[in-house]
Design goal:
heterodimer, A: ABC transporter involved in vitamin B12 uptake, BtuC, 12 helices, B: about 230 residues, Rossmann fold, 2 domains, four-stranded antiparallel β-sheet, globular, binds adenosine-5'-diphosphate, binds magnesium ion
Chain lengths: ~300, ~230
């Protein structure tokens, strides 16, 4: 419906990207890799927000729990994180389902502020629990495949982190297929759009909420297992991802899962653009605040005009 | 008996709305009339498990459904066309209709037959099959809501103010369709537009202040002085 307006925008973004490719290709390469990680963590949170209508401020912490679970499995059994991915996803799905049943479910009809305080409390509890169980020491595993690199002419860059971009694309389009093409997915979408209407046609709304929450935890759990291949694990490792995920979802608009992918590319490339210069390197971490503020301001101004 | 409501009481917080309501629906079409605020929607939502019953019983085809949840009542065979339609606005007509039948245990062949019946009743839904429901007019959305309810081949179809917000020409059309439908399914319909709906019903109840004050056949209601002065407006 915005075809006419969005064409020049798309062209402008494409032009900026081409310019960056020609001038600093690594900005784009590392930007896309970061975008993949951001998006693949944010997408499950967006799923919960779109269907259960809960802002889960413990989302990144569930990834942290998954990362520790994967770390333990891999160090005990000597397996690769990619093999631990499935058991870890099952563990976090069950963990998430229990959290949902015991806590979040009780606040579904409560004011949003109560829900935010609840999930924020869960986040802090999980972080502190990890502190007690695993101590604040960072843990890192190294894998030879992570250092895979590629040379194009003069340029040499790491390619391993593109797996996160692949994961994000698979997640975004896999979920899109699930929600729009399967009966179970359509039912979940229906619950998100109108829970009372869904109950009237025989859909078990309560069960759907629980399953979608568990599914989101399984997906971010799988990401947690992949996460330990590239980063160290420590108790507060998840919290910046909660913040960034929330901002990406807000930028994309609630319910717009492929949009999270686009917002992540914008965030990833912008951050790496600033990191490319010594003078602006320290600014990279506030990029997402600037982006979120401009998106929300832009939306409010447009809303006022309409 | 299809539906038996016995001494039903329900309300919201301190507000008691339904007072010892008794109502039966057989294999027939039954109207439920009364002024705004009489408790018609509350009664229907209590039958559907959306509002909790405080006492009394609701029996569907011999089985009490009083304690069931809304989705279980839907699966037991009651389809509701709510006053506010309660559609899935971001989904197509096709998806809305599909979901009407997806969770009620019926065979594929039945669903196919019901879809043809819905298209027969409302040909516009066939033309607009891929359109998002949220972009349709109120009248068309009402048709989607009725169609969605019929997809599950319910044993009882409940319609809450189906003519609300519709143009007079479409109101007549909706009641014409209901008159056809009552041969296939038991119907309970609430209406403020008593004159039009009398054509589509066999029997009716009048509710005032949360209690049933009158019960009669369609012709009996049409000639009742209270009904004439209060609802038929002469
Ligand atoms: N969700 C609600 N919460 C509180 N009171 C309600 C609610 N819905 C309806 N009521 C009250 O219940 C009474 C009956 O309303 P309703 O069942 O909608 O009547 P009708 O459908 O006959 O117009 C009214 O006094 C109305 O204000
Ligand atoms: Mg009403």
């Amino acid at each position: 419906m915005l075809k006419k307006q969005s064409l020049p925008k798309v062209a402008a973004v494409a032009a900026i990207f081409v310019a960056i490719i020609l001038w600093r290709p690594t900005v784009l390469i590392y930007g896309l890799q970061a975008a993949g990680l951001y998006a693949s963590i944010a997408i499950p949170m967006g799923l919960v927000l779109g269907i259960v209508h809960i802002v889960n401020l413990a989302h990144g912490e569930i990834m942290m729990v998954a990362a520790y679970s994967s770390y333990m499995l891999c160090s005990w059994l000597g397996i690769d994180p990619y093999i631990s991915l499935i058991p870890v996803a099952i563990i976090t799905a069950i963990f998430g389902f229990i959290i949902y049943r015991l806590t979040i479910r009780q606040t579904l009809k409560a004011p949003e502020l109560n829900q935010l305080i609840l999930t924020f409390g869960i986040a802090i509890s999980l972080t502190q629990l990890a502190n007690i169980v695993f101590t604040s020491q960072t843990r890192k595993m190294s894998f030879s495949y992570v250092s895979a690199s590629m040379d194009i002419g003069e340029l040499s860059f790491g390619i391993y982190n593109f797996v996160f971009l692949v994961a994000a694309i698979v997640l975004a389009y896999g979920l899109k297929f699930f929600l729009h093409k399967t009966v179970a997915g359509k039912a979940a979408l229906a619950v998100g759009q109108n829970p009372r209407g869904a109950a009237i046609v025989g859909i078990d709304v309560d069960k759907t909420y629980g399953l979608i929450f568990a599914l989101a935890c399984a997906l971010v759990g799988a990401m947690g297992a992949m996460f330990i291949t590239r980063s160290a694990v420590f108790p507060s490792v998840g919290s910046p991802f909660t913040m960034k995920s929330f901002c990406l979802i807000a930028m994309a608009g609630i319910g717009n899962i492929p949009g999270i992918l686009g917002a992540s590319v914008l965030l990833g490339v912008s951050e790496n653009f600033l990191k490319a210069f010594r003078a602006t390197r320290g600014w990279a971490d506030i990029v997402f605040f600037v982006l979120i503020i401009s998106v929300i301001l832009g939306r409010s101004i447009r809303g006022k005009r309409a | 008996m299809m539906l038996e409501v016995k001494k039903l009481e329900a309300g919201y917080g301190k507000l008691q709305v339904l007072r010892a309501v008794d109502l039966n629906v057989g294999r027939e079409s039954v109207g439920l009339f009364g002024p705004n605020g009489a408790g018609k929607t509350t009664l229907i939502n209590t039958i559907m498990g959306i509002v909790e019953a405080r006492s009394g019983d609701i029996v569907l085809e011999g089985k009490s459904i009083n304690k069931l949840k809304t989705h279980e009542i839907a699966r037991a065979g009651i389809a509701l066309v709510p006053q506010e339609r309660e559609l899935f606005p971001g989904m197509s007509v096709a998806d809305n209709l599909e979901l009407g039948a997806a969770f009620v245990p019926r065979g594929k062949a039945v669903i196919k037959k019901q879809l043809e019946m819905v298209f027969g009743l409302f040909p516009i839904l066939k033309e607009r099959y891929a359109q998002l429901v949220g972009t349709m007019s109120g009248g068309q959305q009402r048709m989607v809501a009725i169609g969605r309810a019929l997809m599950a081949k319910p044993s009882l179809l409940i319609l809450d103010e189906p003519s609300l917000g519709l143009q007079p020409s479409i109101v007549a059309e909706v009641f014409e369709r209901l008159a056809i439908l009552k041969k296939e399914v038991a119907i309970l319909v609430t209406e403020q537009n008593v004159r039009e709906s009398l054509k589509a019903i066999d029997r009716g109840y009048v509710m005032e202040n949360g209690a049933v004050v009158l019960e009669d056949s369609a012709t009996g209601l049409a000639t009742n002085p209270h009904v004439i002065s209060a609802y038929l407006g002469i």
